Amino acid sequence: MVPFHEHIITDLLEDSNGGLVITSSGLGLHKLIFSLFLLHHHSQGCLLILSATPSQKTSILRNYENNLQSQILPSEITSDLPVNQRLSLYTSGGILFITSRILIVDLLTHRLPTTAVAGLIILNAHSLSDTSTEAFIVRILRSTNRRLYVRAFSDRPHSMVSGFAKAERTLKCLFLRKLHLWPRFQVYVSQDLERDPPEVVDIRVPMSTYMIGIQKAVIEVMDACLKEMKKTNKVDVEDLTVENGLFKSFDEIVRRQLDPIWHTLGKRTKQLVSDLKTLRKLLDYLVRYDAVTYLKYLDSLRASESFRSIWIFAESSYKIFEYAKKRVYHFGRSDRGKLGLSKTVSTKKRKLNDNKKDEDQSTSAESRVVLEEVLEEPPKWKVLLDVLMEIQEERDKQASSGEEKDHLVDGNDNGIVLVACKDEHSCMQLEDCVTNGSQKVMREEWEKYLLSKVQLQALPKRHAKKAKGPKGFGVLDGVVATSPGKKAEVSSISKQEHDALLAAALEVSKRINKDIIGDDDDQNHVDGGGFVKGKGKGMKKKGSAGEKNNNDVAPNDNAMESGCLDEMFLRKHDQGLDAESSTATKKLPPVVFYALESDTKILDILKPSTIIAYHPDIGFVREVEIYKAENPSRKVKVYFLFYEDSTEVKKFEASVRRENGAFESLIRQKSLMMIPVDQDGRCVGQDSSNEPQSIISQNLITRKAGGRREAERELQVIVDMREFMSTLPNVLHQKGMHIIPVTLEVGDYILSPLICVERKSIQDLFGSFASGRLYHQVEMMSRYYRIPVLLIEFSQDKSFSFQSASEIGDDVTPNSIISKLSLLVLHFPRLCIIWSRSLHATAEIFASLKSNQDEPDEVKAIRVGVPSEEGVVENDVRAENYNTSAVEMLRRLPGVTDSNYRAIMDGCKSLAELAMLPVERLAELMGGQKAAKMLREFLDAKYPTLL
């Protein structure tokens, strides 16, 4: 622990009620939680931990393993544990990790005695709201256990300032009064971390020319999309900046502003939001991945988003694809040994015969098509190798001079160099780069890229309609038209380039297959694909792929006959081999690569003396500071690798400014917020006692008993277990209803013996119609309940409509949600559809529906729809009212339709009576003489005999 952790714990313990702690990211929150665990004693009751992620559980449990004072590990309660085992764990007084869904069900079913809970520790408090399940749990426990303490934690301050008074609302829903803010610039934190800071080396790596061009082009396209977004007048333009666009939360900002009207927006606006997310990834991947991987990602974007995306048709978008391609290879016709695209020389179609192959290969240089490998390595790779060699040289000097023993006071320096990367892919690639050399890694990525071309070519072709080409390549709307001649020329070059890549890919594929088979004897032959393979050419093993090898590939006859290539050469890239071979001979220190996305607290496990932040992250920087503060005797050296003048630097600096701004906003909110408290000084949350009386309770009968209030009965609602994923049970409990959680076969909510409700959010409604699940659900409700109800629930902050008025047509269409609802009601006439504007409106509707109804029976509700041992289904409303077999028979008779079969059922009691009715009476019931005559003729028709 660092001393400021003790200050946080002291502040928390001052209030027996608990508090909300917000810290900067990376300040050792897991160690703070572990210290609170050590203060817990089993005699106080059980301590429950909610909302913990798997990585947070692992970090906390690892502290237990390293601490000798802790003897009993915390347990985890899952749905696999039976009820009796859960009850024994609750009463043991231990520390328990549990999900909010399991806990709320156990509380409502009284499996967990509330007095057995000493306190709650809630992690990731930034995800809470007044309708969340965690708030539901706290409200139930607070109502019966006044000794309970709640301690909530969050290390994402920017999430605590999103929305209106987020911190104040979180305090109220958890019944807390104290807000504890611990930013990095807090006095105690800064003193502890800056007392003996690690040695820092900031290395700025210049980007290559093409990387600078790609970054500039992406920013231009992003700026164009942002300007286009501002024209919609749907979002707040102040937040729409390129700097904000670098963060993942930018997508959340835009979606939060557009969410209320999202389903009413046009396709163009929705696509702009998606394009901004794609462009943010392009900036991130540019500095994270190598050139070949980046090109492969762009190819996938071009295939998946070709004509849907708006950014692809922006003015600068072609530069992104062009520069990304030039980082990997150059393609064109050779002009007297110089590489370049000759736009004036026309390509001739020729067939190559076997006896004229040598003559055709000696054609002029102007007709040759050349695919030259570039395979630009990420600039950080060379810098990383240089840093590792520099570290080893320093250690060798220290070992020879005897300085190493002097600075190792603790004697635990294992010499490990930790390299922190963003993701697992980067870790594996860098490890391969350090082990085998950067050129070999690029060669392998290049071969994988080419092999993907072969695999794509081998896929079965679909005979689809030819896609219409874009109107143009304008800024965003395609206003700049392309001339037919220019378009034809571009497509011609693209076809040649594709065939050249395919030819190179086939050569690589055949070479790899031959290496696998092990046929190394036949060095001089022409293979089945037509590739000329000489001794030492095109037959390199994987380990010697970087050796010099020119003019390896010649095109096959099929590629020639397709009219795309006169002659193609693959010029292999062999730069930097001497430097790489010298690097491989030098000794490097032991290196461990760590993925930041895994969120594992690796520093305490490995205890490295040297750390290289390959992808700098603000949270990891703080973890390094904590690690050094806890180990003051250990010398720690940190290298930061930044691309100079890149969005990587801007994003890192902006993250610091954004976090500081969030804490400044929280400090202002803390000075102004008002928390309601009761006489005991405890916080009063947002429960039913503070809300105005409902309409039902206000409707008192004042003429009877002198206006005395009648004894209010407790409203009960039976709720399906699966519904606890939503927040409606919480709101119903806030309104004073008693929630009974059970597993229901039919419906989601049972309000009375007659009323069954199937609740659908907007997203669920569309999905249920698409899968056909809603039809089955409504059919089951109509079968077992007299009043089946479909509740369509909108969000409070969204538009109270399915679609804009201009999109609603007059005709029934298969894709219209209004048409589907109309057909559903026509098919099930007893179905009631209720539209709810919000969760609270739903609670009021439920209270109104229950006002004149009996309370539901839990036992009967569970048995509805479940056949007994004899196979009999109880409470079948349809079977009670009608002979279902006779109804099905009636509906199949000639002249009987959906519009008249109910009138026929009301007019006669059985099929036998129907067969005796005259035509005149049938005409009255069936609504027409024609239908009556058709049925009469069918009933009177003689059955043919076999005699």
TrEMBL record:
UniProt GO molecular function: damaged DNA binding; single-stranded DNA binding; single-stranded DNA endodeoxyribonuclease activity
One of the GO biological process terms: resolution of meiotic recombination intermediates
Composition-biased stretches (Basic residues): 534-543
Organism this protein belongs to: Anisodus acutangulus
GO cellular component, one term: nucleotide-excision repair factor 1 complex
Phylogenetic lineage: Eukaryota, Viridiplantae, Streptophyta, Embryophyta, Tracheophyta
Region (Disordered): 529-558
Ribosomal protein in keyword set: no
Subcellular location: Nucleus
Superkingdom: Eukaryota
Protein name: ERCC4 domain-containing protein
Pfam families noted in UniProt: ERCC4
Alphabetical list of Gene3D superfamilies matching this protein: 3.40.50.10130, 5' to 3' exonuclease, C-terminal subdomain
Principal localisation: nucleus
Domain ERCC4, residue spans: 716-796
Coiled coil: none
Family: Belongs to the XPF family.
Alphabetized UniProt keyword annotations: DNA damage, DNA repair, DNA-binding, Endonuclease, Hydrolase, Nuclease, Nucleus
